[in-house]
Amino acid sequence: MSDLEIQNINLDRSLSGYDYELPSELIAQNPAVPRDSSRLLVVNSPSAGQETLALNHIFRDLPELLQPGDLLVMNNTKVMPARLYGRKSTGAKVEVLLLEERQHNCWLALVKPGKHFKIGTQIIFDGNKLSLSTELTATVLETDAATGGRLLQFDLPENISLVQVLEQFGEIPLPPYITASTAADEQYQTVYAQQQGAIAAPTAGLHFTPELLDKLRDRGINQAFVTLHVGVGTFRPVEVEDVTTHQMHEEWIEVSATTIEQIRATKAAGGRIIAVGTTVVRTLEGLAQFGDLQPYVGKINLFIYPGYQWRVVEGLITNFHLPRSSLLMLVSALIGRQRLLKIYQQAIASQYRFYSFGDAMLILPEGTLSAE
Q: Per-residue DSSP letters for 120-159?
């Protein structure tokens, strides 16, 4: 092995190997309208040469880019109105981002300003509907070292869950890099969102329209669904230089027997498994860590970076990700870190739009490292 190869392997495992410069004007503040009019960069070669630039498409071209018999696996999670604004008994304003329910009406949450949320602190939330005059209160029970958050016990009748009243008190949380958006709440939900529980959208799925899904079915491209409730682990930065020591936050998933059978049948017939988004990748590959794919409800915390041995996923639809993020490392594991960064530079030069409301990339199975 040459010194250059050793150096590249070291960078694959180093946080500094996942840096790139992005002009701020390329951070999309609003989604494309209609959804499937976003741009699509197609990777169908195991090299990152100029041919990648020639493969510019529109997302609605997807039926012609995939093959009959392929299976698109999508995440049907739905974003909760998880951001709440309230006040302490002193009148000081506070902001709360719900992460997950630990016990009945007891939620792990990120809070601002965090230093002032001591155990026993009470928070009062006012309803955000003009016709609502009631209040909602919560008490800080303890701190959570893993997230820096707090456990909040919400004061509600035993037969009412917080999720039932969130629409009255919360709002859909957009990522912090979206600062000037005029998007409606439903534009930050996939058209197939069903299972409420996420604090961020599975953004690769935002490009699909009902009409596009119908065209894919008509072409014999099948669709299956999993649920992964996107949590804090998805957007929290990796903070250790040796990325192999990074610990992913656990994420709740559900994979049905129907989806497992669709995957098995697709592979048996020679079709390809195409994940719609990194959340689907983590779901399927995380499930594969247990052995043969089986229906599952529970938590996983799989961290994928270069050197990972793929078990289920063969292709990927994904958006463009933040520097130094676990998502960038995941995609690097599929096509190679150096290739991915070259493709990102091509996308920047071609004025692609980045991040949650941005454009998309389709990595076909013939464009992955396994095709080399």
A: T-EEEEE-SSTT---EEEEEEEEEETTTTEEEEEE---TT
